[in-house]
Amino acid sequence: MKKLKIDIVSDVMCPWCIIGYKNLETALAQLSDEFTAQISWKPFELNPDMPVAGQDLNEHLAQKYGLTEQQGDENRQRILEMGEQAGFDFNFDGKRIMINSFDLHRLLTWAASEGKQTELKLAFFKAHFTDLVYLNEQDTLLDVVASVGLDRARAKQILDSGEYFQDVRSEQNTLQQMGITSVPTFIINDQFALTGGQPSDAFVQAFKQIAEQEAQQQ
């Protein structure tokens, strides 16, 4: 079995990050006889200057990207379809907001030390994109943390303090120095990168190419 180390640079606020991850899951399932994968999530903030209160998503997209209402509708339809193909449900029916995700990254850094980082990340994606809960409200956020078996009181202690602040900032700085400016970015074995919400076939092809290259280097 060949081992893959996969670091996923991602923001919970990014729909393409969960689409890309679900397609990665599919690829790894197809290649389960050949590869095992160790997955970790790295922090990226799409909107580091966003206030804690957040912003209406449609208003945010119009301001940041200049999307018209029609373009926004087309974009949502594409995301819905890509999500369906990947096996993830997006819900665009209610009021959605864009928030600052820094506290989520602090909790995800802690969750890694508890062996539950991917579980928490996926729970955050579902909460934000499917259940339309506001992850900038502490009680709601703590409910999501507790739902994956992490200690609620410990999570509150982290949120109320500066714990993991420097860890997240340090990782963000390292990624910026590596030239990573968009998400998702999948860094494989510390030397290969795939960007965007890639289809599962792209991952399959990449893993096979990587295995061939590494075999040649030995």
TrEMBL record:
The record's annotation in Pfam families points to: DSBA
Residue ranges annotated for the DSBA-like thioredoxin domain, each copy included: 6-207
Question: Could you identify this protein by its name?
Answer: DsbA family oxidoreductase
**Organism field:** Pseudoalteromonas prydzensis
